[in-house]
Amino acid sequence: MNEVVDIKELNDRIEKESSFVDMIKMEMGKVIVGQKHLVDSLLIGLLSDGHILLEGVPGLAKTLAINTLSKIVDADFSRIQFTPDLLPADLIGTMIYSQKKEEFQVKKGPVFTNFVLADEINRSPAKVQSALLESMQERQVTIGEETYQLPQPFLVMATQNPIEQEGTYPLPEAQVDRFMLKVVVDYPKLEEEKMIVRHNVAKSFPKATAILKPENIINARNVVKDVYIDEKIEQYILDIVFATRFPEKYGLEKFASMINYGGSPRASINLAMASKAYAFIKRRGYVIPEDVRAVCHDVLRHRIGLSYEAEAENITSEDIITEILNTVEVP
Predict the structure, then answer these.
(1) pTM to 2 decimals?
(2) Are 158 and 273 in contact (CB under 8 A)?
(3) Per-residue pLDDT at 290 exceeds 60
(4) Fewer CB near the terminus (10 Å): N or C of the chain?
């Protein structure tokens, strides 16, 4: 009985603490028409301190979305266009010799900001992609002999174009795994596109207002961690991840030859964190199975290694995740 009271108290507290979510969505809605899933994913990444990989054709408001979010949070934003001739120093900074002071001085790169948009990340070679790795994982950058902490909050949103594969450098598995979510952005609906055209041909384009400070986000992250996750839900998350590793144990023998490797422990952690953030966005103090199912595709789609057989039979990681969600017992 005691726990029931606590849950009610927690629920009330989280409902109060998460009131700013609706304000963010309202401000985002002024600029971004539709794309609710993209906005939710950005909020999940922001609230659970995770990075996002976006895949979609050009022109679907990916850059506009993160730029708008940084304005709403009143945070610093930098966009880095990844090209084949980009160097790690262009990203993280370098040591420059000052003749006046007769010493080397550190010139920090564009990664020293709150929101980083790594545009077309697969256009740059591995050495540049891995320079971003340290900053994503450790939240720090090493230049010369010194290590510098990055500002908080720090969110990397990388985009890649799925159509054009010529002259691109696919992201290595280890790096893809560092992204909490991989979100596939789709075309807007007909009515939404009508609104988009109207916005863009009008005299002035709508602007979002700053309603939060970066400190508010850091506080909200601590509240998200308080969202209650029951042991049964934890078991459900582990069953889903383990089904990607050992499908035969969950009655999915047909996928045994289709999967080279399943989700790592990072998948389980991120699935739990994303579920908590999703519950928070829905202004609830506890996680329900629907929260796990809502974020599951985004958390797992880039963590399942497909075999040649799967590719030959046109089976995607999406199909496997859907099948796992339909098979694994829901608490």
Answers:
(1) 0.86
(2) no
(3) yes
(4) N
Question: Predicted confidence band at 267 (pLDDT cuts at 50, 70, 90)?
Answer: very high
**Lookup: tokens for 280:** 């928070």
pLDDT on residue 1? 36
Task: Say how far apart CA 20 and CA 2 lie, in whole Å.
Answer: 29
Does residue 283 come out as left (phi exceeding 0), alpha (psi in the -120 to 50 range) or beta? left
Give the largest Cα separation in the chain, rounded.
72
Could you tell me where in the chain the CATH 3.40.50.300 domains are found?
2-216
Q: Is 98 helix (H, G, I), strand (E, B) or coil?
A: strand
Among 268, 266, 212, smallest CA distance to 240 is for: 268
Res 238: pLDDT: 93
Tokens of 243: 């089904």
| Residues carrying CATH 1.10.8.80, the chain | 227-327
Q: What is the pLDDT of residues 2-59, one digit of tens each?
A: 455 477 888 888 888 888 888 888 888 888 888 888 888 988 998 998 899 988 888 7
Q: What is the dihedral of CA 71, 73, 78, 83, to 10 degrees?
A: -90
Residues facing residue 182 across a β-bridge? 53
Dihedral sign, Cα of residue 42, residue 62, residue 83, residue 304: positive
Residue 125: its H or E element: none
Query: Which pLDDT belongs to residue 39?
Result: 87
Please state which CATH number belongs to domain 2-216. Answer: 3.40.50.300
pLDDT at 292: 92
Topology of the domain covering 227-327: Helicase, Ruva Protein; domain 3 (1.10.8)
d(CA 81, CA 97): 26
What would the two tokens of residue 169 be?
């450098």
Phi and psi angles of residue 228, each rounded to the nearest 5 degrees, phi first: -80, 130
